[in-house]
């Protein structure tokens, strides 16, 4: 970094929890790279709360995403609002030749991802999907270690975490939760969600639209896209799904879903599911879910006869917790275990450094819209297996 480097003006669409806990603070820390010039949200209270935390006297606010995307004061648009609006606002940004960072999931349907790909082709802007775990410091080194294995025998992808509120409340960012949405905005969000899920299931074929299947699709787009995206980068796409236990009681494949206490008068449904992917010569088990235990167990672990490589993630909501690589191996008949902590820089900071290089230095984008399309294909494979076997 040099003192004369270009500072990018950023317009943020969405002032909810992830903006307040992650993106706005990180952009503020990186003031030699980025300057927030515009905020957009349909909640006036959220706008006011976030504006008060940003030291820019010229900061503008609006509820109109088109106004932000067309502003000459914006170089990069960050689309970090509710999933139902990701594509609409990414398209607005690209049509105005802005660069875009859109939080995952990019979209809930293949149709919409193809629309984004076409819009980017016509735009001067570049689009990057916010798969922040793929920018974690040790991931590339882990992939090299995995690539050096004689033969992969088995791999595991796990993401079983406690309630986000536990981590958010200790993040030191003191986010506000606001519900001052108009009835029209709430109704629009609901109708969009219903239409998008119907389109997605029509694309898959054979998956009924139910509250349970809809919820699972949204979980895949949220928590699941982190894990499956990392799995794809490390191991590629699987050939097929050979087993699934999707955790809802109306399916044949069931993981028991009891109710567990969350304290005085509060209950939380435990939702866990697992999937078995077939790769050439080995299988990968994918375990995910949310329970009431305040811990964050997220990792990719790959096994060969003489070495095991694991990339361990911690909660991204508490800054400075490192992502680590762990290697257990047979070293000439001796058990050897190594822990590599390459950096304390969090994946979100590394992701934004990459975004700056994409925009300013013309570096290629790793997490593209075409890349995100693969996750949607994986979600469909899982859903079709679970419902087709019912």
TrEMBL record:
UniProt GO molecular function: nucleotide binding; oxidoreductase activity
Annotated transmembrane regions: none
Gene3D superfamilies: Dihydrodipicolinate Reductase, domain 2 (3.30.360.10), NAD(P)-binding Rossmann-like Domain (3.40.50.720)
SUPFAM superfamilies (UniProt xref): NAD(P)-binding Rossmann-fold domains
Domain Gfo/Idh/MocA-like oxidoreductase N-terminal: 8-131
Record's GO cellular component terms: cytoplasm
GO biological process terms, semicolon-separated: NADPH regeneration
Pfam families: GFO_IDH_MocA (PF01408)
InterPro entries: Gfo/Idh/MocA-like_OxRdtase_N, NAD(P)-bd_dom_sf
Protein's name according to its UniProt entry: Gfo/Idh/MocA-like oxidoreductase N-terminal domain-containing protein
């Amino acid at each position: 970094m040099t003192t004369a480097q270009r500072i990018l003006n950023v317009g943020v669409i969405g002032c909810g929890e992830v903006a307040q806990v992650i993106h706005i603070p990180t952009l503020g820390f990186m003031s030699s790279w980025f300057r927030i010039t515009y905020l957009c949200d349909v909640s006036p209270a959220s706008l006011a709360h976030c504006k008060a935390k940003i030291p820019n006297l010229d900061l503008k606010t609006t509820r109109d995403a088109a106004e932000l995307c067309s502003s000459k004061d914006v170089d990069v648009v960050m689309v970090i609002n509710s999933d139902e609006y990701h594509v609409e606002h990414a398209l607005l940004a690209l049509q105005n030749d802005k660069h875009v960072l859109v939080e995952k999931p990019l979209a809930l349907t293949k149709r919409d991802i193809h629309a984004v790909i076409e819009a980017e082709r016509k735009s001067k802007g570049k689009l990057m999907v916010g798969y922040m775990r793929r920018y974690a410091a040790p991931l590339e080194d882990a992939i090299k270690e995995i690539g050096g294995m004689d033969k992969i025998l088995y791999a595991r992808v796990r993401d079983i975490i406690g309630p986000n509120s536990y981590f958010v409340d200790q993040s030191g960012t003191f986010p506000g939760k606001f519900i001052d949405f108009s009835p029209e905005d709430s109704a629009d969000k609901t109708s969009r969600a219903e239409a998008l899920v119907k389109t997605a299931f029509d694309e898959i074929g054979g998956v009924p639209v139910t509250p349970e299947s809809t919820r699972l699709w949204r979980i895949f787009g949220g928590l699941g896209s982190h894990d499956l995206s990392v799995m794809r980068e490390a191991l590629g796409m699987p050939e097929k799904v050979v087993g699934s236990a999707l955790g809802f009681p109306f399916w044949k494949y069931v993981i028991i879903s009891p109710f567990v206490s969350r304290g005085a008068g509060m209950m939380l449904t435990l939702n866990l599911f697992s999937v078995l992917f077939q790769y050439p010569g080995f299988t990968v088990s994918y375990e995910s879910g949310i329970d009431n235990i305040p811990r964050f167990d997220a990792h990719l672990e790959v096994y060969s006869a003489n070495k095991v490589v694991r990339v361990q993630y911690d909660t991204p909501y508490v800054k400075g917790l490192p992502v680590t690589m762990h290697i257990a191996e047979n070293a000439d008949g001796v058990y050897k275990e190594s822990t590599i902590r390459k950096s304390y820089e969090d994946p979100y900071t590394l992701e934004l450094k990459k975004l700056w290089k994409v925009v300013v230095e013309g570096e290629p984008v790793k997490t593209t819209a075409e890349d995100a399309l693969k996750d949607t294909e994986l979600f469909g494979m899982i859903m079709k297996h679970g419902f087709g076997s019912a």
